[in-house]
What does this fold into?
Amino acid sequence: MDTFLSLLLERAKKNPDVPAFRTKRMGIWNPTSWSQARDQVSILAQALSQNGVEAGTPVGIFGPNATDFYLDYLAVQSLGGIVVPIGTNTFGDELAQQVNGADVEVVLAFEQQHVDALLECGQTCVKRIFYINGRGMENYTQPELMALPDATGGIEASAAFLEQMEGQRNPEETATILFTSGTGRSERPVELSHGALIATARSIARRETITEKDELLAYLPLSVSSDFLFSFSLALTTGCTLNCPESDDTVLQNMQEIGPSVLFGPPYVYKYIYTHASNRIESARTFDTKIYKSALRAVMTVASHRAAGQKDSFTDWLLFMFARITTFSPFCNIYGLSRLRLALTGGDAIAPDVFNFFRAIGIDLRETYGQVEGCACVTMQSPEDWNSDSVGLPLDDTEVRIENGEIWFRGPGQMKGIYKNPEATADSIKDGWVRTHDAGHLDDQGRLHVHGQIARMGSLNGGGAFASDMLETRLRSFEYIKQAIVLGDGRDYPVAVVTVDGTITRTWADRRSLRYTGYADLSAHASVQEMVREYIQKVNEGLAEDPATSGMQFRRFAILNREFMASAGEVTPTRKLRCHEIEEKHRGLIDALYSDALEYTYTDPVDEESYTVPLGNV
It folds into this structure.
């Protein structure tokens, strides 16, 4: 049967001693074999059953990526419970919204800060909170609290218990409730079944020949749908090993140690590596910088030819191969990419220059398209797709159609519905097809091209088209621009609010002996403003070449005094911008960009300090 419990039992029987999970703690990688995972899951499941968890019980899993929490997933699901993953940095109103929105009754929390967050957020439905790490919990007397080691004490492992539970499970049961990102609409709790997640993972594994010999890296927040699919589901489906880094700060270092063969990352992950490499070159000796930039030109020349469907000259090909061997093979070793045979990205559009860079240096980077409502993956590029305009062909047994410019899909990986919201479910699923609220088209080869969220598309006052997602992607191609939001619908012209990458911009400024006191001062510096203005001017030149985009050229821009922040409600766990919140919070700045003002002064609600933001003309 296609349930995660049946997959666990199958793996434990077939490969009992093979590592299923590894988690790095205190500098040591701690493996857990499939048979050990089965035994630990059986103990956890019995303890949860004794404390009221049964079929249909929503259970919050609140903590970091670690073996313990993925085993908690399996224990809950073995009882027919519903896993509600909660990212370790989720607090306050957002935490209460997720807990209350999914009717979470039981929570498995990692440590004191997570328990405190649950007690303080205003949730109203949690009856029991288990905590794993008891440090600092000695004086807590709330009756709903219980140490998980106390709950499992005295319980013996029992494969028979899990086998009994397996007979009661059904692939159509809800495996998890995951929340949409809230970038285009309000966050919604989406129900995904065991069968949908497993079918999607199997389709990916068949297409890319992912086997038990592969290594995965799990580092995205637990609450992200791509972690549930590309980490947990893919590991259970294929039997490959799932590796969990020590912390968010050690992901790159841990990736070098593991050398994953398959990696999923949102666009910001690849942009970070791309920018980090650029920063190292900015900090290097002039001679080394010249060598790197020459090698980069060689590989990017061939990448641009292949993206355009052109053939390479023999000289270009020779320089391309020489640069790969002498410069970018060591580069891949430094970043833990040398064993990476498949790199996937999705959740947002990746900047073309970043996509081309990884393809050019020999990393098989593919774009995927999907939403929570489709288990995070509906289409995937093929190895031959050197152009990032397309997000590839649908997965096995999945269909995509375009209706009035909107993307619809149906297939084995589609959601069951919106949790306890039949009206929203009926609006999202019609005649078996799921609507995406994204605009796009299919080319003559059946590949999907995504234009962006329909809610963020519009027109300029002069009647010209306006596509903010496309403009933002072009701006993010510049390594110095970290985030960008573009406004223009119903206005005379587009404007941009961007943030610069502090690390590489500081290095750039230091090499030019610029004086500044911090990020806000650096972002307002005349030289940084001019650097960004020159790049936006290049973007305008590219827009002017196409009649369809010539009317979308920028006239004004501003560099914000800080980065957009998750703690301010401006960014999702995968670093996508919550555009509606940003527009509301920075309404004064946006209005100033549509005036003749040369600067805008405001009090930032994050630190309640006053800042003056220059307003630039392009």
